[in-house]
Amino acid sequence: MAHNDIEDDILLKRIQDDDEKAFDQLFTKYYPGLIRYCKSHLPYPSDEAEDVLLEVFFKIWQNRKRLLIHTSLVSFLYMSVKNRIHDHYRKKSREIYRSAIDIADEAVPDYLIPDQLLAFKELSAEIDKMINMLPARTQLVFCMSRYDNLTYENIALLLDISINSVKTHMYRAIKFLKEVYRSSNTSREG
Questions:
Q1: Whole-number Å distance between alpha carbons of 10 and 7
Q2: What digits encode the pLDDT tens for the residues 151-168?
């Protein structure tokens, strides 16, 4: 075990024993590298990187008693930041999606709303149902690409898989969704 890992284990144990000074040491030690990492994955200029990082450290302090780390502390911190960045993008994409729907609702003339709205809701429900039929990992990759608008490179980085794996998951998802959609339309017609 490296000297740094031993120091980190001692620091973590002190944090779990409610030692605020140890928590401050952890923050001071890893903040510079983590903030650079965060800023490299979030749009600039904004305070989003600082917000994400503070949320991660807040969660660590909040859950310090039941914190189980199976890797090195530094790996855990970077993975926590990476996961929080992913959550941040998911939240942002949902906000954008909701505001786009609100704008579309405002732009539709009143006399078209009931029929089109019903058709849109039915189609959306059917698509969501089909997406939920995908295997969990494939579903995650598909949603990150289609709903979160992440590039294959970003998905690969966030999930710690190769770009080719991302492409394979996307290919399988699209193929599956097309097949299920075709078969559901064929069964309705027949």
A1: 5
A2: 888 888 888 899 999 999
If phi > 0 it is left, if psi is from -120 to 50 it is alpha, else beta; for residue 44 that is beta
| Alpha-carbon radius of gyration of the chain | 22
| Among the listed residues 38, 23, 25, the one whose alpha carbon sits nearest the alpha carbon of residue 78 | 38
3-class secondary-structure state, position 72: coil
Give the range among 23-32, 34-43, 52-61, 108-117 with minimum mean pLDDT: 108-117
CB of 142 closer than 8 Å to CB of 173 = yes
- Distance between CA atoms of residues 62 and 12, nearest Å: 13
Determine the average pLDDT of the residues in 57-67.
90
- Please determine, for residue 113, whether its predicted confidence score (pLDDT) is greater than 90: no
How far, CA to CA in Å, does 85 sit from each of 14, 25, 56, 154, 160? Answer: 27, 23, 10, 11, 14
Q: What angle do CA 129, 130, 131 make, to 5 degrees?
A: 90
Distance between CA atoms of residues 15 and 8, nearest Å: 10
Report all structural domains of the chain as residue ranges with CATH numbers, in order of start: 3-86 (1.10.1740.10), 110-189 (1.10.10.10)
Within the chain, what is the greatest distance between any pair of CA atoms?
Answer: 71
Q: What is the pLDDT of residues 135-148, one digit of tens each?
A: 988 988 888 887 77
